[in-house]
Amino acid sequence: MPKIVDREEMQERIIAATMSAFVKYGHAATKMTDIATEAGLAKGTLYLYFQNKEELTLALVRACFALWEEQVKRAEPPETLEDFIVIVRGAITPGQTDRQATRMFFEIMGAGTNTPGLMEEVAAFYKMLGRFYAQNLRALKNNGVLSPRLNARAHGRAIASIADGLVIHRAMFELDDALYDEMVAAVLAQVRAGLTVGGVEHG
Known about the structure:
- InterPro entries: BetI_C, Homeodomain-like_sf, HTH-type_TetR-like_transc_reg, HTH_TetR, Tet_transcr_reg_TetR-rel_C_sf.
- Residues 31-50 bind DNA.
- By secondary structure, the chain is mostly helical.
- It folds into 2 domains: 1-51, Arc Repressor Mutant, subunit A; 60-197, Tetracycline Repressor, domain 2.
- Helices cover 72% and strands 0% of the residues.
- The longest helix has 25 residues, at 118-142.
- The radius of gyration is 20 Å and the shape is elongated.
């Protein structure tokens, strides 16, 4: 009897192999043959699930963003400003796998990829992240922790941008842990000070 293959499980296996191949060879140099080898599949089998590398690239980006979104939203709603700072700290202290993924994304985006839908996925992720931070800031405003004049929408998106820049900087330049910890502390101090000062609410 032929073995029944779970399509979703096979797609996840191929996406994981794509990540491995991109990290090993670089996005530009990776061929579908490399991905098939990493997945332990015949090249023809690979094409039953994904038509080309661009389609695989988009699937990988979506999978990574879905995982990161799940991690972000797993955080407990903050009751104090320090609770919120802990949430931000979690976003800017990536593990080794996250650093590899960040370098991969940097290469994909920097190469001016023609992958359809890629920029839309990236924009949607950072929009979600900005909204998540803004939602938590509004909750702190409503609880009297932050000034009612605080622009939660602007601060939320700004913090998402700061987190993105810091994570990319570490991934690309392989900063040592001690220096990065000092940078994180400096950024969090600036975020804390900015939220304490506040501003006129528009969002």
